[in-house]
């Protein structure tokens, strides 16, 4: 087991190997990948497909003097194994040491924490410019998948490199013919032409950007890769090396169903079946995708748009087909395009609905502000994974959404507290003609309580779910259930029934309700599933600033949290029911 | 005067004209442009260059059924004159009716408020998708300058149109060989090749994206333009029409010095000299550009980066040359590239400093958060026009910056209150190795008071400029002088001397200072030059939420203000010195 990998402690050890040993190393690494992936899950397709390329990179180049920047960096497992971190793959007790993305805290061979797509070329041009300024001589290598190429930042990077750099930069385009789902965009027609002509097609996007270009069809063959990398090493100018690899290489299920196997939960290697059943029962992904299919069928004006993330809300190939190509469009990894196109479509009378992950919407501040909100285009955006307890990788946190989109004029952010409210808000967001409206998918499982939901969210109106006195608990979205628990505890411990408010709007305040609370309340407690800074609670605190109402603002801090335990984090922030009850008691005592 | 233009009340009138009359119309329109531009200033080069193209568009297409989307829309003056809005050009009493950008409130021929670059193709794809959905048949036309093409959103739009649309979309690339300054990026080498070969170059960026392509060299000749537009009208698929025009056409100074004449203040037509002397005396643009030249000379690690906006901080061609091409780089209109490249350069030991306008930095939320702040790359960003009283066009407001960048972990936003502090903060931001640091250029003229500035801003520390009691006035950045005035007035009217605090950090709070204020203050008043929501004051209000300290939060509202009178706006918000003094008196009375 791992006969060659066992000898690898740093890239220097890779350079000593002959071709046969390198080939054995590749199969060792695939075994190590299986060891980790079958047990804890992770990015399967991208890593299985790039084993040979990353071995060849370390064989040819001299890391960390020569510098690799992996786009998204979800495909960097092989690089990690070759740079002193194989324990995170072969030792089951040490999986936790590895973040799944490049991470400078782990190794001097990593230069950036990366998890969003399309950034590698731009970051690499920066390394290259500084190298030139400081009279360095090393190679700078960006390693980018075909899927990431459609992002505006990557295209800006290619454009810059194509004329402004004039020195060494090697952009390796790892073309496995897929984004997470199938690719969308004119670029991909061109990549296909280039593959079909062994790099000699009439049109060549990279050359049109002013870049030198080399094609290598055998992207899973170490000898070929070593040859092509040697040929561009120490290049005096930017060059694109287009390599053709097979996503999921070496594992039939992953080779066959590439969308499912892009990222996969723990699985049985023999059958390819998942060995855990996360969620189970009702899921918001199923609810959303089923709803969208039905909604599109019943209303021909509905236009579903996804920037390469249909599966973020359960919209697999079959459901996409049910919606059909007139009403469903994937613009590739191009969030700016998705939002601006939605705005245009709304102005022409369609009902656009954009679906993606919260963390990726960050890429569209300006498109949401200028293209959309300034024009008050009534688009709907459904965001998954905005909850603090769903994705905990520092690169994929959804906890900043309220502080971003809650402060753009005209934009409404709706935070539902149960299934009925989520479904009603989604329906409203799509049908309305009022405002750009973002609906956050709840992150704490499907809650089926008996609270009915309003249909209309045109007016900012908080909902008083339980009338009490003295203390008003405003529990936003996902934290509503924590608000309920806090309310019970306060009643039990402090002897009075507090008021429980479901704010529903994360972006705005309902001054009328806030004003009325002054009558028989001394304290307002806000709870929100996101950072406090720029968020919901601060708006409440400012509203009451000149009054005698006290305000306790609870939420996360403005920090880059990484792979945390959600409940521990809340405990550290004083957000257990007990701690908050105590704090309420203290605050009331002081103010009396 | 205006013999043909006088007959034009709508596009229908244009269609009736013969070629000779169309040509006369073009010179009428240039006269009308001169009438407005010489008297109130505006975008000269872009409008002078596109007169014939916009006449031909209205001659060939049928607006508003056929729909034009003008990129940036600063070149849409001719379109406006042809669609019922000529009074804004020929009648000096009615200049104010015209926003200088497309504006749906002005006319049914405008579909979007637009002022940022690179958005037209994406917006147009949305119009086109919705048209297809609703079985419409009209032409959708995006009109985009060559300078705007380098923006990621535009490239994402081309990529989408190149394969996913499959129906009518006409992208007119108005190639005048310039952004505001000279163009930068590989795209521009390709455009030159295409011009030099009459559209037949070996490489063609547009075809590589999968688009159909037509070249028209005579972009200022109406007959040629009509011919080429007729040839693509009702196209069944997306097509790029690349037209070559002359920026500043018809006015020698503007044809000769295109950078100076992109936008110009009022001028004497005979001499080309400005007839107003805005500013005069010391300016932050001169101070900044002189400083950057000197800093780059004295420190070879300094790398000045601008996304096509060097003149935002006075860095004209001569000063750019003094810094030299190793230490100065322009990445074209590509803000994402600018910030990500800066992050990369910082990681490799350079001292990157990005200069641009506040409103354009909005395009980089994700690059600042993920590429930069998450990696704590110590880049410097110098932002002009973040003040509420500098740019008042709704598309160019800088008042959102604190709510955006003040809520990203690790990012520091510094708001200086006088010249000494601005210069010290800029020096610190460039030399430090602590955090991504944004320095806001003051908007209220160069203040030379005697307050000295600290050199080090590594620790968040508010500065108590004047110690008093009862009321603490926290006057951020540009509003510091208003805080001073308020302090004097409070002392005079209310009979006690308040404490005056210069917070310096717009992004963070200094808990120690805030805590200490509790000892002998009852009220904190925050003043900020930006929207309150997500801004500085709300952080203060939340800090004091559970204490007996009252907080009054003053600033602008979360709104899209357009072409306002700054002092009137403040008066409407209750922000005159008198009104605030009264409010302070009331608040103190209630709390006693």
Automatic annotation (TrEMBL), chains A, B:
GO terms for molecular function: 1-deoxy-D-xylulose-5-phosphate synthase activity; metal ion binding. One of its GO terms (cellular component) is cytosol. Homodimer. The keyword Ion transport does not apply. It comes from the Bacteria. Its cofactor is Mg(2+). The keyword ATP-binding does not apply. This is 1-deoxy-D-xylulose-5-phosphate synthase. Signal peptide: none annotated. Its EC number is 2.2.1.7. Keywords: Isoprene biosynthesis, Magnesium, Metal-binding, Thiamine biosynthesis, Thiamine pyrophosphate, Transferase. Pathway: Metabolic intermediate biosynthesis; 1-deoxy-D-xylulose 5-phosphate biosynthesis; 1-deoxy-D-xylulose 5-phosphate from D-glyceraldehyde 3-phosphate and pyruvate: step 1/1. It is an enzyme of class 2 (transferase). SUPFAM superfamilies: Thiamin diphosphate-binding fold (THDP-binding), TK C-terminal domain-like. Belongs to the transketolase family. DXPS subfamily. It comes from Hallerella succinigenes. Residues 282-448 form the Transketolase-like pyrimidine-binding domain. One of its GO terms (biological process) is isopentenyl diphosphate biosynthetic process, methylerythritol 4-phosphate pathway. InterPro entries: Dxylulose-5-P_synthase (IPR005477), THDP-binding (IPR029061), Transketo_C/PFOR_II (IPR009014), Transketolase-like_Pyr-bd (IPR005475), Transketolase_C (IPR033248).
């Amino acid at each position: 087991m791992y006969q060659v990998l066992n000898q690898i402690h740093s890239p220097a050890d890779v350079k000593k190997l002959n071709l046969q040993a390198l080939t054995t190393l590749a199969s060792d690494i695939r075994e190590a990948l299986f060891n980790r992936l079958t047990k804890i899950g992770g990015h399967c397709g991208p890593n299985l497909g790039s084993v040979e390329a990353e071995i060849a990179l370390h064989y040819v180049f001299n890391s960390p003097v020569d510098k690799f920047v992996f786009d998204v960096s979800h495909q960097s497992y092989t690089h990690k194994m070759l740079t002193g971190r194989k324990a995170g793959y072969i030792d089951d007790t040490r999986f936790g040491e590895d973040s799944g993305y490049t991470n400078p805290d782990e190794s001097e061979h990593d230069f950036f924490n990366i998890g969003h797509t399309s950034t590698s070329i731009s970051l690499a041009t920066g390394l290259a410019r500084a190298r030139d300024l400081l009279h360095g001589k090393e190679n700078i290598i960006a390693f980018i998948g075909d899927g990431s190429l459609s992002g505006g930042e990557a295209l800006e990077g290619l454009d810059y490199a194509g004329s402004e750099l004039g020195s060494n930069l090697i952009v390796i385009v790892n073309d496995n013919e897929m984004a997470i789902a199938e690719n969308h965009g004119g670029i991909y027609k061109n990549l296909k032409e280039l593959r079909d002509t062994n790099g000699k097609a009439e049109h060549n996007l990279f050359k049109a950007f002013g870049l030198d270009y080399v094609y290598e069809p055998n992207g899973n063959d170490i000898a070929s890769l070593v040859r092509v990398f040697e040929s561009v090493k120490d290049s005096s100018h930017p060059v694109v090396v287009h390599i053709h690899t097979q996503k999921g290489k070496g594992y039939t299920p992953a080779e066959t169903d590439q969308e499912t196997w892009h990222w996969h939960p723990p699985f049985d290697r023999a059958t390819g079946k998942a060995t855990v059943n996360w969620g189970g029962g009702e899921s918001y992904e199923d609810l959303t995708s089923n709803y969208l299919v039905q909604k599109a069928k019943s209303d021909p004006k509905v236009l579903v748009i996804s920037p390469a993330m249909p599966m973020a809300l359960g919209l697999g190939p079959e459901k996409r087909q049910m919606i059909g190509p007139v009403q469903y469009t994937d613009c590739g990894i191009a969030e700016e395009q998705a939002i601006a196109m939605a705005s245009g479509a709304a102005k022409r009378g369609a009902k656009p609905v954009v679906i993606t992950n919260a963390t990726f919407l960050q890429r569209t501040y300006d498109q949401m502000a200028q293209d959309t909100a300034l024009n008050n285009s009534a688009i709907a955006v459904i965001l998954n994974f905005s909850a603090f307890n769903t994705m905990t990788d520092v690169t994929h946190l959804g906890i900043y959404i309220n502080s971003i989109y809650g402060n753009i004029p005209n934009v409404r952010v709706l935070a539902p507290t149960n299934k009925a409210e989520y479904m009603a808000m989604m329906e409203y967001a799509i049908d309305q003609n009022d405002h750009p409206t973002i609906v956050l998918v709840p992150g704490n499982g499907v809650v089926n309580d008996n609270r009915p939901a309003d249909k209309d969210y045109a007016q900012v109106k908080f909902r008083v779910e339980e009338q009490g006195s003295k203390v008003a608990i405003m529990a936003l979205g996902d934290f509503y259930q924590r608000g309920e628990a806090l309310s019970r505890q306060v009643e039990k411990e402090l002897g009075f029934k507090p008021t429980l408010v479901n704010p529903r709007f994360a972006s705005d305040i309902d001054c009328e309700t806030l004003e009325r609370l002054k009558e028989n309340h001394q304290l307002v407690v806000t709870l929100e599933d996101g950072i406090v800074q720029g968020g919901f609670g601060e708006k409440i605190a400012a509203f009451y600033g000149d009054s005698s109402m006290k305000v306790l603002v609870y939420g996360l801090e403005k920090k880059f949290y990484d792979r945390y335990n959600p409940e521990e984090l809340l405990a550290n922030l004083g957000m257990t029911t007990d701690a908050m009850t105590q704090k309420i008691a203290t605050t009331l005592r002081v103010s009396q």
